[in-house]
Amino acid sequence: MIRSVLSRNAGILKARPLSIGVVSSVGIGFNRISDFKLNNFKNVNSFNNDRSQISSIRYNSTSSLSPVGSTLAGASEGLENKSSEISTTLTSFADSSSELISNANGELCTYIGYFENLGLAKSWWWPPDFVTHLFEYVHVYTGLPWWGTIMTVAIGVRILLFPLYIKSADNQGKMNNAKPELDAIQEQMKEITSNPDRDVAKVQRLMQRRRLIMQKHDIKTRYLIAPLIQVPFAIGIFASIRTLTGIPIPGFENQGILWFTDLNAADPYLGLQIITAAAYVLFIRLGGETAGSNLSPTMLKVLTGLPVLSIPLTMNFSSGLVFYFAINALFSIIQNMILRNKSFRKFFNISQINRNAQAKGKPFSIKEFVDAKVAQNKAQLEDQLRIEEIKEKRKHQKDRNTIMSKEEFDKMFVNKRKQ
């Protein structure tokens, strides 16, 4: 078999001898190796006569290292040395960032621009960066510990937004006082929308009546969503505290209070989580942000259960972050109690809530509101189509009136000839 293979490839081997070129990489110290030509196969007849030479060539790879093998071994060893050198020279990103923070900040945050130098607050328009700047200004100028800084910023933001809550509470009070009339219209709308052959004109009249009731009570629906303005601030505070406690910033490990002195670590007793959940349950039961919410029993149960479910979800959050949740929830309860006070509402000219009317009225239903809105839009579309149809008929009637009949034309022609 070996003879046949060698005889078949004799012409190729004589025409162009094989060469193996090993080229090294300059970056890791390989040496260029000269071409090693296999000229042993020039004379094929010698292999036919001497099998021992074929055997020696066949098992040449298992013998002692050839010059090529020794060179490759040296190159491999050089590669390992370079790899070990790189691994010892370069540090991980986490280590370098921690070293940068420890070297750049001195000891504690004691000057304005501290977080900007660390690359944590590069702008004023992005909510997390804006809140980080607020934390820095409050901490530096007041000298408060970090727990006091978090509490001051959280309460300060809520106080700045308090006028919007007053306006929303006034609008909510007017809405609750008009609820019996609005509920009556809502019931009629529900009956009409459930009927396939609904009277579009009646739907329009009901919607017009609803608008008149809201105008009479001076209800402006845009103020009902005013509390949502706090969402960007809440997200900014959440992201900022999570970043500061995750790095962590020097001072957070010992500037807590009570049993959670380390604001970077999670609360081991879950005390903050339990306080936060209990505060939110009470807050929802009292009527929400504006003290005037009238939720359905099902919705009330769902919203009451969510804070309880948040305890296991936030058990691994840092104490600084859950402390902010607790402060925000407690302030919401205080705000609710203030807005429920009749003297306060009278002083700020906030519409008083008629609890009897609120109790008699139906709870707010999103489905019914959506159905009413869909019916209104459909009625408006059908009215628009009817108006277009009437206009088209009038146009055809006008064109028809302008066309003169043959009798009229003949009569007019005869009269002109007589004249």
Description:
Helices cover 67% and strands 1% of the residues. The chain is an all-alpha fold and 419 residues long. Among the domains are: 2-89, no CATH class; 127-162 and 226-360, no CATH class. α8 (127-142) crosses α9 (146-160), α8 (127-142) packs across α13 (230-246) and α14 packs antiparallel against α15. The termini are far apart. Residues 1-72 and 89-97 have low confidence and may be disordered.
Topology:
Blueprint: H1 2-8, H2 10-15, E1 19-20, E2 36-37, H3 44-49, H4 51-58, H5 67-89, H6 93-104, H7 114-117, H8 127-142, H9 146-160, H10 162-177, H11 179-194, H12 200-216, H13 230-246, H14 271-285, H15 297-313, H16 319-340, H17 342-347, H18 355-360, H19 366-402, H20 406-418
